[in-house]
Description:
Number of domains: 1
Distance between the termini: 12 Å
CATH class: Alpha Beta
CATH superfamily: Glycoside hydrolase, family 3, N-terminal domain
Structural class: alpha/beta
Largest sheet: 8 strands, parallel
Radius of gyration: 19 Å
CATH architecture: Alpha-Beta Barrel
Strand order of the largest sheet: 11-9-7-6-3-2-1-12
Shape: globular
Helix content: 40-55%
CATH topology: TIM Barrel
Amino acid sequence: MKFLPRVLLTILFLSSFSELKAWSFDSEANDSxxxxxxxxxxxxxxxxxxxxxxxxxxxxxxxxxxxVILFDYDVPAKSPVRNIASKKQLRSLVExxxxxxxxxxxxxxxxxxxxxxxxKQKFGFKALPSQQRIAEINHKDTTEFYAAQTAVELKDxxxxxxxxxxxxxxxxxxxxxxxxxxxxxxxxxxxxxxHSRLTLNVFSENGIFGAIKHxxxxxxxxxxxxxxxxxxxxxxxxxELDVFKRLIAQETVDMVMTAHxxxxxxxxxxxxxLSKATIQxxxxxxxxxxxxxISDDLQMKAISSQYGLQETIRLAILAGVDVLLFANNxxxxxxxxxxAHAIIKKLVETNEVPMTRINESFNRIMRLKTQLx
Length: 373
């Protein structure tokens, strides 16, 4: 994120050690394993307001939970009551959450625009067109205007991470989860890169992290990974990787979200989120991405219907995922943070996950968090 020139960022990074109680990002001594594991987890929760007895608060305090995600609608309960009711309520909720955390807390949301936005007009927020509509207008000022509007509203609420923009190419307009919802800017790679770069830069200027999604490309799929396995082996095109390559090369990307898609050409065994060949070999080694990798919701059926919780966590971490997202909005498990934390700790203690992997993820996460104001 380009809040400051690199020299000043280095100074800020070094000075932040004292704020973080002089914890060393490279050492294994000063930071407890419990804390490092907690920073690798993000979870959703229920409630318009919280107190010290709320499970998510206990997760933050007892398990060092690194991030939360907010929703306006509770899917498992089929209820319009989840985390958002009004500006005043949401601001108070997020402020309370920040105060509970020993370290800076990622507070995330999906505010893409169009049909995928949690901050809606009925709650007092401004209208936000879809990415497809913004690209149809295709004007730099328009794209920057809506990106700034989004960033200002998020920052005013205390939200610091937006799971946007969607950088999937619209290769299948009938795609039920991307194309049909207007979530993609375009089928044209230049158009997608242009508007994504503008949006990420405006987010950065306003103190908001963006997370581009869904790596290595969900635009050609014919089904929804919320509902089951999505195989893009026959439809995926290498150009879908080029979007990520170009944005990463421009140093505009803080975070990348993975897709739960299976592509035999990239990995004959595992979907992208659980694939070392896809994340480590392609994203890290080939595309040279050194920032934070976050999974899409690990409770989505594309993953949860095929893998148990322990195997999901083990494979994701070994693949190179830094933050494991449990949105708690496909299914709701109030103890998922506690369970995931215990599983990771056991995997480390039994050497199924090397401590070096935990340290790598923790270091990336903390380097990003030092930029939070």
